Amino acid sequence: MKIRNPFKNYLGQWKDDVSTKEKIIWSFFIVVISIAFFNIFIFPAIF
């Protein structure tokens, strides 16, 4: 599998030739990283 940037521009618009599978995989990684960031940095600062 070729690793490439899934985004077209800074607005996060998907490329026209990206597959649904690739969208799901990249979305999963983005969500996991966001949750980890929140749990490590934001959540302890609140409480």
Protein architecture, described:
This protein is mainly alpha-helical. The protein has a domain at 22-47. It is built from 1 helix and no strands. The chain has one helix at 20-46. The mean pLDDT is 78.
Q: Given the C-alpha coordinates, what overall shape results?
A: elongated
Distance from N terminus to C terminus (CA atoms, Å) equals 42 Å
**H and E order:** H
What would you report as the Rg, rounded to the nearest angstrom? 14 Å
Task: Report the mean per-residue pLDDT as an integer.
Answer: 78
Question: How would you concisely characterize the structure shown here?
Answer:
This protein has 47 residues and is mainly alpha-helical.
Features:
47 residues, single chain, mainly alpha, elongated, 57% helix
Topology summary:
Elements: H1 20-46
